[in-house]
Amino acid sequence: NNSSIKQFYIPDSDPGYSGSSYGLPIDHEGKPLQYNTHMNMFGIKGDDLIGFLNPPLSLPTHIKLDVDGIEDKILQGLENVLSTECVRSVLVESSEVYKDSHDTINEILKTNGFLLQQSEASNPYEKHPSSYNYIFTRK
What is the pLDDT of residues 88-138, one digit of tens each? Predict the structure, then answer.
């Protein structure tokens, strides 16, 4: 939700491992993240990035977020982009367990004219999944 240098927390450096976190050492459920290493990393607010790219040709039509715990913060940094009619759909992986983040995601998208169209478990093989892919489309 802002352009700055923050910590990037890495639980495991094995190839293909997911679960790293930027800005806060939290996992996809908002719980404390156990990490092995961390480093400084520059993050750029989505609205700032679009500003560098010659709008309107650079405006996205579809957005996919799967970042393990800071989806709400990224959407807060995309409010100018989300308010444009160019964006037709947003796919967000989110956990209902992390209620504050999940509620913020829903509110931002609703405020910007999106409706939930579909949801499905991120991992259909989990017996009790905690993360879901939510697809929102513009009204």
Answer: 999 999 988 899 999 999 999 999 999 999 999 988 888 888 899 999 999
* pLDDT at residue 55, as a whole number: 66
Q: Which residues pair with 41 in a beta bridge?
A: 6
Q: CA 59, CA 81: separation in Å to the nearest integer?
A: 7
What is the rounded CA–CA span in Å between residue 94 and residue 133? 7
DSSP string for residues in 96-117: TTSHHHHHHHHHHHHHTTEEEE
